[in-house]
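Hey team,

Filing this mostly as a record. A colleague (T.K.) asked me to run one chain through the structure pipeline before their review meeting, and I want the input and output archived in the tracker in case anyone asks later how it was produced. No errors, nothing strange. Just documentation.

Input sequence:
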Amino acid sequence: MPSPRALRRTNPITIALAALLTVGFLFFIFSSASDPAPPPPPTTKERLGSKDAASNPLSPPSLPFRKTSVLKQDGTQAPPPVVHYQMTNLTASADPVGNRETVLILTPMTRFYQGYWDNLLKLSYPHELISLGFITPKTREGNAATAALQEQINKVQSGSKGKRFASVTILRQDTEIPLQSQDEAERHKMENQKMRRAAMSKARNSLLFTTLGPTTSWVLWLDADIVETPASLIQDLAAHDKPVIVPNCFQRYYNDEKKAMDVRPYDFNSWIDSQTAQILAAKMDNDDILLEGYRELPTYRTLMAYMADSNQDLHAEVQLDGVGGTALLVKADVHRDGAMFPPFSFYHLIETEGFAKMASRLGWKSWGLPNYFVYHFNE
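Output structure:
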């Protein structure tokens, strides 16, 4: 015969379970209320200096490069930390050293020039605020350049702490190289320009998009064959507080007529546009590009290369419509806004000249220093 309902309700097992649940619930409530408040999230500076920071400080410190991860007590992998960056506090000012602004120096490299590396080490900008990025092609020459570069990097990064750079990134280019020979004469043939500069644009964009970090204030594009600059190059260019600024690139050579060393203009990609060039562009097909410095295609633009006057102010400024990339300082926000190096015809311009046009369309103007010189290697 079944037990009465009243007896089932007062079953000792039921009473014990109810009491246990009540005690557990009360313990959970009171222990949670007594727990201290969680600490505030670490600042960018604290996170970058902690053991949780990424191996590469150019990336958000979420441990993307580490081989091992922290494990929880149950043996499962702990999630990466959440990092907060106050991008509104990031500055790119006329006093980059005083404001401790980080600089990213980017160099596409096909050949390694010792003069380039020696000059890089002489830069007086604090090295702990400089990160380096390189991209080299997967060719025999590119392999040799990578090996030579890694050897020099190992020496510096294992040497005196004051001379070490904040980080170094080397990428290997995964796009085809249109020219097998990198000799100066072959590189500058007019018929090779569109495919060569399109490949250069892709390399620059890959390098930029991979290495630009949330703490980067300035990006200095420095070609691998620039072997002489003032030691204060970064400070001098940044002092003008321009979004895009380029010095004048010359080349030292032996003048047979003078029987002495001399200098001559090298980079003709920094210019002020002309009506003639605009008329030429208007008659071109959409995929055609205008090139500068070739007799076959006279544009009659005003070239900064021929505006140099050694008796004038070293820091005289001129606004430009096109820029070269041999030594080009850019506020990182210009790139963050979307200005990149078009590997296609962009208003009939390509690569660095196309970059200046794209930056202009985004509201950023380009400037040049006709009397401030950097020097290109002479083959």
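Quick notes for T.K.: Confidence is low (pLDDT under 50) at residues 3-8, 32-38, 40-58, 60-67. The longest helix spans residues 12-34.
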